[in-house]
Design a protein that fits this description.
The chain is mainly alpha-helical and about 80 residues long. About 55% of the residues lie in helices and about 0% in strands. About 5% of the residues are buried.
């Protein structure tokens, strides 16, 4: 309780948020291609795996539009 250690504020990351979101969308797209290319990954109990990738892409695009408009930046918070 008696420590006087200062807590430094975290510095922002050197990457643009839009670039990170685009990389995530790209990785979901690669996962979708791999899932569709390998039959064992989209048949039987795994028939929902391609739809998971599609949902990741769609949500990533929604997130990209949100961040692109500037509402995802914490500088105005």
């Amino acid at each position: 309780m008696g420590s006087s250690a200062r807590v430094t504020e975290p510095q922002p990351l050197p990457w643009r948020t839009t670039r990170v979101v685009l990389w995530g969308i790209g990785l979901w797209a690669v996962a979708l291609v791999v899932t569709l290319a390998v039959p064992a990954l989209h048949t039987g109990d795994r028939s929902w795996w391609p739809w998971c990738c599609v949902a990741g892409i769609v949500l990533g695009l929604l997130g990209y539009s949100y961040v692109r408009r500037g509402r995802g930046n914490a500088s105005d918070a």
